Amino acid sequence: MMLIDADHSYDGVRNDFERWLPHVAPSGLIVFHDYLMPDIARYVDDAASLDPRVSSVPGQLVPNGYGVTKLATTPSAHVREAPQTIPNKYAICWEQVAQVPTCSGRG
Predict the structure, then answer these.
(1) Would you say 60 and 35 are in contact if contact means Cβ atoms under 8 Å apart?
(2) Are 8 and 37 a contacting pair, CB within 8 Å?
(3) DSSP at 36
(4) Is there a contact between 39 and 10 (Cβ–Cβ < 8 Å)?
(5) Each residue of 51-107: pLDDT tens digit?
């Protein structure tokens, strides 16, 4: 699982996604934190969720988080066909991540 909690700019989110996606295993979850911030939502909605290397499953996890799943070279059926099972698998973990306070000095 990769959590992107970027500098809240479109370019920052894009750079983190592009730089770290190759290191995520196939079927690995990529979660974008601060999805309600305009630049992050714009990047996720206009680019990341439509990227052919990922599936938009599970989608919006909580109001402020959005997840995509990295595909294998050939998309696997279980990633495309089981969107209801992925959020439940990560729900407890996501709730814990969402409750971590922001470090001072970070926007």
Answers:
(1) yes
(2) yes
(3) T
(4) yes
(5) 999 988 888 887 788 888 888 764 444 444 434 444 444 444 444 444 444 333 333
Calpha distance 82→79 (Å, rounded): 6
Report the interhelical angle of 38-46 vs 10-20 (nearest 10°): 50
Residue (of 12, 7, 72) closest to 43 by Cα position: 12
Is the confidence at residue 50, as pLDDT, over 60?
A: yes
| Tokens 């959020």 belong to residue | 87
C-beta atoms surrounding 33 within 10 Å: 23
Longest dimension (CA), the chain: 43
With 0.90 as the threshold, say if the pTM is over it.
no
Helical residues (DSSP H) of 1-107, grouped into ranges: 10-20, 38-46, 77-81, 85-98
What 8-state DSSP symbol labels residue 48?
G
Query: β-strand 2-4 against 29-33: which pairing, if any?
Result: parallel
Token pair for 71:
């595909």
